[in-house]
Every structure is written in structure tokens, then in C-alpha cells.
Write a structure and sequence with these properties.
The complex is a heterodimer.
Chain A lengths: L5 H30 L26 H36 L2 H16 L2 H11 L3 H12 L2 H16 L1 H8 L4 H38 L10 H12 L5 H28 L7
Chain B lengths: L2 H29 L4 H5 L2 H5 L3 H11 L5 H13 L13 H35 L5 H15 L2 H15 L20 H35 L2 H8 L4 H38 L5 H10 L3 H29 L1 H9 L1
Helix pairs in contact in B: 1-13, 6-7, 6-9, 6-11, 6-13, 7-9, 8-9, 8-11, 9-11, 11-12, 11-13, 12-13
Classes of the chains: A mainly alpha, B mainly alpha.
Chain lengths: 274, 329
Amino acid sequence: MKITNRRRKMVLWMVLTVLLLIGVTVAGWLVGEKAAVTDFSRKNLAPCLAYPFGTDFMGRDMFLRTLAGISSSIRLGLITAAVSAVIAFFMGMASAVLGRTADALISGLIDLIMGIPHILLLILISYACGKGFWGVTVGISLTHWTSLARLIRGEVLQLKESNYIKIASRLGHGKLKAAAVHMTPHLLPQLITGLVLMFPHAILHEASITFLGFGLPPEEPAVGIILSESMKYLVMGKWWLALFPGLFLAAAVLLFHFLGQGIALLLDPENAHR
Amino acid sequence: MDSAKWVGMQILRMAVLLAAVTVTVFALLSLSPVDPLTTNVGQTALGSMSAEQVKKLQEYWGVGVPPTVRFLGWAKDLLRGDLGISLLYRRPVIEVIGERFFNSVWLMAAAWILSGLIGFFLGVLAGRKRGGTADKLVTGYCLITASTPAFWIAMVLLMVFAVWLKWLPIGLAVPIGMSSADVSLSDRIAHMILPALALSMTGISNIALHTREKLAAVMESDYVLFARARGETERSVLIRHGLRNIALPALTLQFASVSEIFGGSVLVEQVFSYPGLGQAAVTAGLGSDVPLLMGITVITAAVVFGGNTAANILYGLIDPRMRKGRKKR
């Protein structure tokens, strides 16, 4: 009478998580206009049935704003994590395949990026791009690839020693062809796992950099903007302005994290028997 | 390669990286399309000024000077130990940084030590038995704090302890409207508790999770199984095999966390309006104060690289396997 095993159950949970996240993203996108509606007849309301997250100093519905903010965070996270993963793939591959000079250059670059505190580097890149949407997007894309690139480099170095790659090179396949045809499929699972596990970082850094004033412009309903606005009202006891948006951001990040771990477990052949 | 030469190489490597950082950061800052005049003076004020005044301001903010000329001038002064003059504070950068650093250093040191000790302890507690109750609790805590933005944790602490319970001050490093001579040590400490707490809470998770991972791997290894079979007690296994094997990675981790602590301090100082180095970096970035931003970046990068190099050197000198590996090469 046992229809489900642990693997199936986990896949089911993951599908539900993905659906939930897609739902939030789409809903937040659609709700965008409504979230910006101001109505001074209902300003500074504490959470109640009509406005579960309360309203802010301009009478905006905090529930809708939170939804829209998380949606924009997720969308931005998707773009930046994807770009970062692609950079990581090429950098890792290049440093393992293209010889010693390339390897030294790329690992120097990685050390350089890791040597500047992450937030400071994000501030610098965002400043270089003139702040705003491009500031955050470029900043996060350019700073999150380092550890995944190291992972891929290690993996490729191992693969280079494996017999099937050696045979391929004896058969006359060039380095690049071997990398593209024989190594890439082998690396895909790691790349996907790395990509999903990058989301949480990307989302959190987006919120942080926006909070500091180097990210999305104040008109956007971003979580970082909501929280930095709420700073002025915290002292007056308007706790709902900060509590719910932060809580929901953390929940979204946690879901992505579990998703990434789930994918890692499923794709890892060592766990195939479970 | 003998040890002295190897240490020299490590230090040389650090110097090269540091030079690369200054060039990169300067390139980034000169790429910026942000006009310092519009951000600091404002469009309307600029419009009402005479051409002469605008020209004077442009000269002050260095508009129109080629980046290479600026960089060479800056680098030449740097070699003499002069970091230039902050455009916003109108004081030497080194003075501003020194004052801010003094405020930040205690905050960061407290968080660094607290998060290191508590993180290590929690990691050991969790890694001793993977899947146990302690493990579940610790990893749960770590997951939650790692998924929460650091500044939001700071805001929640501020709401609870400063606004509701009124136990601790809301922000700044000293009471408002008090001359610096009257500020007592207890005042300073009271202002530091919440930021330090917020900073440590987020720092713990990384260290605890890594320690747990390393210890769990040791405790599930064959030699620990053999030690248990020999009849060693759990306690002696933990101390003689577990802790010894994770001591070195923990050291590296602790030095590597300097960078993360600084990153967190930027956010936390912003929440508490704490006049530290991180807040100065944000102010400099928002106000296009290039000399100050350069100075802060170079100094923090030096501290981070210094930490990493120190960890590398310690690791290489302490670990017998690394010593042998070097000799073979």
C-alpha cells in the first residue's frame, strides 16, 4: 500500500514549492499598479482584516507592496543568478582547459573579487553603473560567480584525467570540442544546482544594496525600498511596516534554499538509492 | 622551497593583489556616469549659479580631469602615506577613516570573536552527531539567520529592545547632545550592544555550518570508528580526533570571516546610524566622495588580505602535511 517513497515525496514538495514561487512572482507582477495606489484616507493603519499587513504613511496597502516587492526580487534574482552561472561556467572551464596563464589570471581575479568585502564591491560596481536597476543587476551578476567557478574548475580538472576525455583527445578532438561535447553534459547537474543555490544570495544582496540606496529606485516596490522607508517610522512604533516584508522575503529565500538542496540531492548519483 | 621563502612569496602575492585592487576600484569609480555636482549641489541650485561658481565647484570635485592623471596623482600620494582629502567632510581621508575605524573596530572585534566562539561551539554541538536533536536545532537556526537579510535582523532587534522594551538606545554611538568629554564607557557599550548582537547573529551561521560539516566528516570516518572500537570514550574521541582535525580549518574560516563581518557592519551601522567605517562608505558612495571611498576600500581590502595571508601562513607553518608537501616540490 506504499505508493510513495521518499524520492517521490520530495519531488512532489519541490513541485509545490516551484508553483508557489511562480504564483507569488506572477501575482506580484500583475498587482504592480495597484501596489502603488496611494489613499490618504487610510494611512498608517495597523494590520486588520482588510489590510492584513497594514498600510504605510501614504496609505499604500502593505500586503500588495510586499507581494510586488518579493516578485521583483525573485525576477531580479533569476536574471542575475543565471548570468552569474554562465560566467562561472565559462571562467571555470577556461581556467581548467586553457592552460596555466589563464588559470593564474582567473584565480587572481577570483581572489581579487573575494578580497573586497562583498557589500563594498556591490556599492562600487553599482556606483560605476550609475546606480539604479543596472547598478544592482550588473553588480550582483559580476560578483556571485566566484565559488561556482572554482567548483567547476575542480570538476573539469578531474574530468581531464578521466579515460573518456583522454580517448577523445587521442581520437583527434580538440580541447574546445572535448570541453563542449564531452564535458558540458557532465557539468550540467552541478551548474543547475549551483544556479538555484545562488538565488538566495542574489535576492538577499539585492535587498541589501537597495536598502542602502544603491539599488532599485524609490518608485519601485522593492523589499529593500520598503524596509529603508520603514526605518523612519520604526521609532514611532509602526512595526508592521518592517516585520512582514522582511519575514516574507526570508520565507521566499528559504524556499529557494530548500529547492536548491532538493535538486542537489536528486542529481547526486550517490543518493540514487534513496 | 624553504619556509622563509614561501612566507615571502605569500606576502608578495598579497601586495600584488592589493595593487590590483586599487587599480580596479579606481577604474570602477572613474567609469561612473554619476555627476558629483548634481548629486551634491542639486540641479536647481546649479541652474541658479553663475558660470564662474559652477566652474569653481567642478574644479573642487575634479570634473574633467582625465582618470589616468587623477590615478597617478593619487597613487603617488598613497606611497607617501597620504590618502587625500575627503570631499564631503573637507578633512584628510586618513583622519576621517581613523575616527570611524575607532568606532567600528570594537563593534567588529566583538562580533568577530562572539560569532567565532559561538559558531564554533554550535558547529561542534551539531557535527558531533549528524541528524541528532542538537544538529537539527543548530542547522535550523543557521538556515533561518542565513536566509534573513542582516539589516532586517538589526531592525527587529531595534524594534524589540529599543522601541518596545526601551532597554537600549535606538542608535548612534553616543547619547545625543552630549559633548564627547561627558560620554562614559558604559554609554558607549550600551550603544554598541545591539549592533554587535545583530552582527554576530548573522556571522554565526556560516562558521557553525562549516564547522559542523568538517566535524561530521571526521566523526563518520573509519579512524573514528576504529577508535570507538578500541574502546575510547565519546569524549576522548571528540577531543583527540575531532577537535584536532577541525582546528586548522576553523582557523582559516575565522580569518576569512573578517570580510563578511565588514560587509555586515555596513548594513548594521546604517540601521543604527552608528558612525563607523561602513556608514562612511555608504555616505561616500551616495555623495560621490571618491577619495574617501577609495581610502576605505583600500584599507579594508588590506585588512582582509592581511587576514587571509596570515591564515595561509599559519596554516602552512602549523600543518605538518603542508610543510612536507612544500619540501617535496
